[in-house]
Amino acid sequence: MRRLLLLSPPLLVALIAAAVLASAPSTPADQTVDIDSSRRNAIVIAAERASPAIVAVGTVERIERGFLRGHSLYTYQELAPFPFVGSGVIIDGDEGLIVTNDHVIAGLSELLVTLPDGRQFDATLVGHDSSNDLALLRIPASDLPEIPLGTSDDLMIGEWVLAIGNPFGDLIDDPQPTVSIGVISALNRDFRNARTGRISLDMIQTDAGINPGNSGGALVNAQGELIGINSFIISPSGTSADIGFAIPVNRVRRVVDDLARYGQVRPVYRDFVTHTFRRRMAESTGVTHRPGAIVTALDINGPAAQAGLLLGDIVTRINGQAVTNSQEMEAYLTTLRVGEPIRLTVWRPDGEAEIDYELIQDRP
Questions:
Q1: Number of structural domains, the chain?
Q2: What pTM does this model have?
Q3: Distance between CA 290 and CA 41 in Å, rounded?
Q4: Does 22 reside within a domain?
């Protein structure tokens, strides 16, 4: 026999009241709470995590002044600070280490670092590497906020990023960094600057706003981790046109490690020379033309030869990246460090081969 569940009148009333309250529209106070909670999103949290480690990098100039007293000229010097030349990122708060662009500090005889809280410190140059456009500074301070380092190996086109720095600092005159938002527009971009001759390889492209003064600042992922150092833009006006480029953090790590240990990037021993493999060269040798760099000189006692590289080999890839000419070959080699493994993919008349070896330091 089936049993029926009977509710007492007080319990039935309570259930009906609860259902009515649950279906009632939210009050303005409830909506305000919902809006406030939604405002504190991942972007806000990422900015809060990274911004305290972003500094302004500038200089102090000594200005000669004078005045006449009677027939005599008296001169004196005034110190004129210019604190907002570019930006920098604190990567070691205990040691006071700051990474920035080499072009930010180029030509500056005195370096001045301004923290977001307004404190200023004279900085010393630990080392710099113009080929990678990176410089490492040190300030006499400890217990500073430092940015967490991410990785640039797993970046995705379209993911959100923040560009944090001090754009137009000479106009804004505020050490608090500016945050702009965008996405990763492209990866592995290569450029040659016709004016300076600098070659930039494997760059991260972003549409996050990067303006004068942002150079040396941070490109940050949605976790608030450093994924790149903002370096340059492409723009006819000189201001942001949503096409900016950053140095991948994995390369920053390698370069900064050398600068911190040795004060410079240890030069890699180049034990072979290449030239662009051109169509006419292929026709004269009777082989099929393919883009690459042909080995024209080789140290038979060097690590590449010992690993199997031969004269006449046509290098088509380095560490999986395509090589179409000798300029790309040389430029890519400048991004590698002593002790790193390298794999050359080469073409020979009898087929393709891979040459694996470890880079060594240049001989004195």
A1: 3
A2: 0.74
A3: 50
A4: no
